[in-house]
Structure formats: structure tokens, C-alpha cells
């Protein structure tokens, strides 16, 4: 009898201990679930189920933890089991079973459970109908996939953690992104064991992305640092900081390093949450997302236009065509300036965040278009960026099968439907380059005659290369300015890296452009090139050679224009004239001579007189704009000093008709 009592006591104590351990385990599991630490929640729910196998509450919690951790196969198994054990275990079991089936692309079964959820309580109907609409959209898009190839960027770029917010330069050869992989700058970890976020970059060489490099301490500190976007020319990086409840900062690439980030103005940053930003190729308009009051829902997309004073103007909501009562995030304005890409959880989509584009006509945004499957999935798809030539895109997704929790994917855009197209009826001329500018390569795409609709409405030209010392061949840090000769306005500006000489400018409209490259102690360089109103994406790669400003140095002024037989300066010359004036203003001891030359067509005496008058017109402009006449001379050579044969017009006489600037020496009469 004593033995029986002891045995029963052991049974009772063991049961009590098991019950106590179960309660402790499930309490811990619930805490971790509510704290979004799903791995630990899974561990403790499993521990609880060891003490009480088949317990509906623990099984339900385990299913939710798997679902929220995007481990959908396990989630479906546990949630289906608990539905069979006790369908009343939770108020929302039908909703989560619907979500699990939606994640499994089993849309009919998902709709069945969403309907059950909606019938359970009247207040559930709205949420159920939203999910059912998603399933119907997802089913349609999934059944009609777009002919594009989506592939994971692989373990060279992605890690076992979160890799997201890809930011792409216009030429598609440099990619910045955010990652919380091991080895963060601060070395700190979150409760779930992941590291704080840092910013990385990788470059494309021979079709392969190189091993990512972590950016320096100016951008990566001890806590979270995330990239938001990069300007098309790669010289300005926008970063997100948790300061001020979430603000946008910018950093410029100067002297081969990124400057310490500075906050954007209070017209853009607020006391609320600003998450993402994108800038137009001309640097005049910012698109950004914010949850500030007065919007349509959670995050809305706004824009700000830079004023004549160089300051950002007041933020303007893009309105209900773009923004919904849910959230819109990750705006990306294409370099053409006519196409806005963004992510939304409110427009008609497959589930979570989907990626859309909207064409801009005038000041109006057209109805957003879903990019479709397989770019969009039933999971969160976000942070879409695309190269200027529309051939390659990148985005971040939680879809299963990746290397980490969130991975970056590449899209080979075989079908180009994002930008409105028009017939191209004008061929592209070769860019005109001065004799001391070497054309390295030029990639001009041809119109695809097989396409039903031709290419983009806008011109997208990436003008890039290196600035080098003409004698030594060493890199030079200089300022490169591109001016629209039609109205003498500054179109783009860049600074070449003093360590590499590299620079990049992006042009988004056709026109006649003058490019001047300046550095104190050197004679500036002049380039002229013309783009038609309609053309495909192209890259112009040049090597710009700067000569030191010493006696005898000459340079052809490629953006000084006269009508035939006239010495009157055309208005298209004003941009270059200002560059000459700035050179002389910044070098007050410099003396120069303006040389005029003609071809051999016509009377040689007349040609010499005309060339002298043209040179004098340039000198007269400079005198009228404050340059001392004693520092200036004008000389006409007519047809006496041809650079090439006058036998042909193209490549001959057109080159010999020119205006030059020549360094004479130093003057004491500034």
C-alpha cells in the first residue's frame, strides 16, 4: 500500500511539474511571438508541446510563429492540425489558414477560409473581402506570368540575414544595398540574434557582381544604417536614419570618400516617419515616403521641387491616384523623369507589398500598373530599381527559396512595358568631340524593328569617363558642367574623383549640349554633342585631357557659334562665353588670345577678315562683362592654319572652321 501511495504521489507531482513547465513554456513562447522573435517562439512552443502533446493553444501558437516567419509549409501543417483539433481555438484561425493557403498559391482554399472568417463576425467581413480580392488578383496574375526572368543574386551578394533596399546607378554597374549580416560596424546584435544594419556596395564586372564592400564609418556607425537611394550619377547617396523618428540624410562622394551624412531640410523631414527617397536625374525633384498627418493612409508618397535659391520646396502629396488608405513606399523615379516605380500594400495586388509603376504625363500621374508575376508574389516585394536602359531591374523580396530572410533579386526585363513609347523617326548623330578629347567607346542601341512599339519617349544618355592630365595621364579632380546651349541653362554638374578621374552625368532630353571641364591651373576643356529629341538609351564614354594653363596652350572652343558669313555670336554661345569669363575672373593674371579660323571656301582675304571679326566678337563680349581689355587679344588666321584637309566637309572643312583660345602669359593688369 505504501508503494502505491508513493507511486501515485510521484505521478501527481510529475503531472503538476509538467503542467507548470507547460505554462512557463507557453508564456515564454507567447512573449516571443508578440515580440516578433519567431525563432525563439517556435523553440518554446515545441517545448510546451513536449509537456502537453496535441495541445491546441500551443499548436496554434506554433503555427502562427511559422507563418509569421514565412515558413509556410510548417505553418500549414500546424494550423490545419489545430483546425481539426479545435476550430474554436482562436478568433482568427480561419484568417490565418486563409493566409497560409494564399502563401501556398492555393487561392480557392484561401478564399474558402477567408469567407469562413468573414461569416464568423460582421466586423471581419471588410478584412475578409480585402484578402479575397487579393487572391482573385493573385490568381489572375499567377495564371498569366510576364515573360521576364527573375533570379536570386546569389550568395555573392545575399546573406543568411536581411539584404534589401537595392540602389542602382543609372548605368546599372554599381549597386548599393542594406544588410544586417554578421560583421556589422558596431558589432551589436538585436534580441533575435541578428546584427545591426550596414550599407554595402558591389560593382558589376563581366556580368558578375563582385563581393560586396562595406561603406566607411562616415556612413556606417554603431547602430542601424540603411541606404535609401543613389543619384543617377552616383555622386549623392541618400540614407535612412532612425534619428528624429526616422529621417532621410544625404552624403556626397568627394575626394574618393563619402561625406558625413547631413539631414535633408525640414520641408522633407518631419517629426514623423520618412523612409525612402528618389531624386530625378536633373537633381531638381525629390520623391519620398512619409506617414505625416494629412495623407491618405499609412505611408504616402510626396514630392518636393528645388527652388531657384537651391532650397527644397514644400512637400506635396501625390494624391489618391498613387496613394491609398494603406501604405505606399520606396518611390523610384526613372532617369527619364516620366516613370515612377513604387511599392504599395493598398493597390490591387497579390498580397503584402506589390510593385507598381505610374507614367507621368505633364503634372498628372496615370493609373498605377502592377508589374505582375513573377516580379510580384504573394509575399512582400519592395524597393524596385531599374537601369536607365530598362534592361535590368533589382528588388527585395521575402519569397521562399532565398538564401536569407529577405533577398535581393535580379530581373532580366525581356518585355519593356514600363515607359510610354513613340515612333523614332530621327537617327542619332555621332557626338562631336574636340581634338584633345578621346572617345573611348560609345554604345548606341538600335531600334528593335521586331517590337510592336518602339522604345522610350525620353532620351537617356549617360555621359561618363575620366579627366586626366594631358601630359602625365594622371587623374585630375575637376568640375564638369553640362549646359543646354539653346537656353544657356545648367543641365547637370559632376566632380571627377581626384584619385581615379572618373565622373558621370545623365542627360534626359534631346538638345545641343556644351560640356566644360575646369580645374584651377588648367585651361578648361570644351566638348559639344547633340542628341535628337527621341533616342534609345546610350552611354558616351570619354577621356577628357586637361592642359596646364601655360604659354602657348591652345584649345578649340567647341561651343562658340556663328551663322554662315557672320561674325555675330549666336545665343547658343553664351554658355561657353561664360566659362571663358569665369576662367579669366578666377585667374586674374592670365592673358589670352582668341584665334579665328575658316575653311578655304571663298575669298582668302575675306576669310581672314571674317575670322578676325569673329575673334573680336568674343573679345568684345568679355570686355563688356568685366574683363580688362589689356588681357585680351583677337587674331584672325582665315584659312592659313587648317587642322585637316579641306577636301571634304565632314571631317574636314567643318573642323577647320573654329575659334580657339590661346594662353599668352601672365599680366600685372588684372
From TrEMBL:
Keywords assigned by UniProt, alphabetized: Cell outer membrane, Membrane, Signal, TPR repeat
Extent of the TPR repeats: 22-55
Record-linked Pfam families: OmpA, PD40, TPR_11
GO cellular component: cell outer membrane
Compartment(s) of residence: Cell outer membrane
OmpA-like domain: residues covered: 551-667
InterPro entries to which the protein is assigned, alphabetical: 6-blade_b-propeller_TolB-like (IPR011042), Bact_OuterMem_StrucFunc (IPR050330), OMP_bac (IPR006664), OmpA-like (IPR006665), OmpA-like_sf (IPR036737), TPR-like_helical_dom_sf (IPR011990), TPR_rpt (IPR019734), WD40 (IPR011659)
Signal peptide residue numbers: 1-19
Family annotation (SUPFAM superfamilies): DPP6 N-terminal domain-like, OmpA-like, TPR-like
PANTHER family reported for this sequence: LIPOPROTEIN YIAD-RELATED (PTHR30329:SF21), STATOR ELEMENT OF FLAGELLAR MOTOR COMPLEX (PTHR30329)
Protein name, entry field: OmpA/MotB domain protein
Species of the source: Marivirga tractuosa (strain ATCC 23168 / DSM 4126 / NBRC 15989 / NCIMB 1408 / VKM B-1430 / H-43)
Amino acid at each position: 500500500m505504501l508503494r502505491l501511495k508513493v507511486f501515485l504521489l510521484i505521478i501527481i507531482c510529475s503531472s503538476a511539474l509538467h503542467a507548470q513547465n507547460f505554462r512557463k513554456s507557453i508564456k515564454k513562447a507567447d512573449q516571443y511571438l508578440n515580440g516578433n522573435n519567431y525563432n525563439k517562439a517556435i523553440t518554446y512552443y515545441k517545448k510546451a508541446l513536449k509537456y502537453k502533446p496535441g495541445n491546441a493553444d500551443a499548436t496554434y501558437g506554433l503555427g502562427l510563429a511559422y507563418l509569421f516567419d514565412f515558413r509556410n509549409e510548417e505553418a500549414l501543417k500546424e494550423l490545419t492540425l489545430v483546425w481539426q483539433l479545435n476550430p474554436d481555438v482562436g478568433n482568427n484561425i480561419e484568417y490565418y489558414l486563409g493566409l497560409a493557403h494564399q502563401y501556398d498559391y492555393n487561392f480557392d482554399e484561401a478564399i474558402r477560409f477567408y469567407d469562413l472568417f468573414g461569416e464568423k463576425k460582421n466586423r471581419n467581413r471588410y478584412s475578409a473581402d480585402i484578402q479575397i480580392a487579393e487572391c482573385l488578383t493573385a490568381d489572375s496574375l499567377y495564371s498569366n506570368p510576364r515573360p521576364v526572368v527573375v533570379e536570386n543574386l546569389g550568395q555573392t551578394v545575399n546573406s543568411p540575414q536581411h539584404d534589401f533596399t537595392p540602389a542602382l546607378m543609372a548605368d546599372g554597374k554599381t549597386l548599393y544595398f542594406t544588410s544586417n549580416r554578421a560583421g556589422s560596424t558596431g558589432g551589436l546584435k538585436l534580441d533575435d540574434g541578428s546584427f545591426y544594419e550596414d550599407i554595402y556596395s558591389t560593382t558589376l564586372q563581366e556580368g558578375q557582381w563582385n563581393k560586396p564592400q562595406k561603406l566607411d564609418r562616415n556612413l556606417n556607425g554603431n547602430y542601424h544604417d540603411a541606404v535609401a537611394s543613389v543619384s543617377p550619377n552616383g555622386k549623392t547617396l541618400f540614407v535612412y536614419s532612425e534619428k528624429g523618428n526616422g529621417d532621410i540624410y544625404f552624403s556626397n562622394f568627394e575626394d574618393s570618400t563619402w561625406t558625413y551624412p547631413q539631414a535633408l531640410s525640414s520641408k522633407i523631414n518631419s517629426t514623423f516617419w520618412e523612409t525612402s527617397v528618389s531624386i530625378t536625374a536633373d537633381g531638381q525633384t525629390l520623391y519620398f515616403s512619409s506617414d505625416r498627418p494629412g495623407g491618405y493612409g499609412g505611408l504616402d508618397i510626396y514630392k518636393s521641387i528645388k527652388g531657384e535659391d537651391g532650397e527644397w520646396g514644400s512637400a506635396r502629396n501625390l494624391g489618391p491616384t498613387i496613394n491609398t488608405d494603406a501604405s505606399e513606399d520606396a518611390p523610384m523615379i526613372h532617369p527619364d523623369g516620366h516613370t515612377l516605380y513604387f511599392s504599395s500594400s493598398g493597390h490591387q495586388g497579390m498580397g503584402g507589398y506589390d510593385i507598381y509603376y505610374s507614367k507621368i504625363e505633364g503634372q498628372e500621374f496615370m493609373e498605377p500598373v502592377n508589374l505582375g508575376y513573377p516580379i510580384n508574389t504573394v509575399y512582400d516585394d519592395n524597393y524596385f530599381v531599374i537601369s536607365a536602359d530598362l534592361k535590368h531591374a533589382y528588388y527585395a523580396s521575402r519569397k521562399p527559396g532565398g538564401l536569407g530572410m529577405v533577398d535581393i533579386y535580379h530581373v532580366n526585363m525581356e518585355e519593356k512595358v514600363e515607359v510610354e513609347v513613340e515612333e523614332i523617326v530621327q537617327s542619332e548623330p555621332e557626338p562631336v568631340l574636340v581634338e584633345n578629347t578621346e572617345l573611348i567607346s560609345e554604345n548606341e542601341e538600335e531600334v528593335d524593328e521586331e517590337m510592336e512599339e518602339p522604345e522610350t519617349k525620353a532620351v537617356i544618355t549617360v555621359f561618363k569617363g575620366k579627366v586626366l592630365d594631358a601630359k602625365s595621364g594622371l587623374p585630375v579632380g575637376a568640375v564638369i558642367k553640362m549646359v543646354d546651349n539653346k537656353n544657356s541653362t545648367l543641365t547637370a554638374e559632376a566632380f571627377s574623383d581626384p584619385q581615379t578621374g572618373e565622373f558621370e552625368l545623365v542627360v534626359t532630353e534631346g538638345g545641343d549640349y556644351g560640356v566644360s571641364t575646369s580645374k584651377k591651373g588648367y585651361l578648361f576643356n570644351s566638348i559639344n554633342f547633340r542628341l535628337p529629341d527621341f533616342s534609345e538609351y546610350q552611354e558616351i564614354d570619354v577621356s577628357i585631357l586637361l592642359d596646364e594653363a601655360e604659354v602657348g596652350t591652345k584649345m578649340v572652343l567647341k561651343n562658340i557659334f556663328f551663322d554662315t558669313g557672320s561674325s555675330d555670336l549666336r545665343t547658343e554661345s553664351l554658355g561657353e562665353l561664360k566659362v571663358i569669363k569665369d576662367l579669366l575672373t578666377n585667374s586674374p593674371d592670365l592673358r589670352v588670345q582668341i584665334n579665328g579660323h575658316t575653311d578655304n571656301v571663298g575669298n582668302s582675304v575675306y576669310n581672314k577678315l571674317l575670322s578676325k571679326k569673329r575673334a573680336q566678337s568674343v573679345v568684345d563680349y568679355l570686355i563688356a562683362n568685366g574683363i580688362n581689355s589689356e588681357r585680351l587679344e583677337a587674331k584672325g588666321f582665315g584659312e592659313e592654319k587648317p587642322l585637316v584637309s579641306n577636301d571634304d566637309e565632314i571631317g574636314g572643312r567643318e573642323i577647320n572652321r573654329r575659334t580657339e583660345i590661346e594662353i599668352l602669359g601672365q599680366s600685372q593688369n588684372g
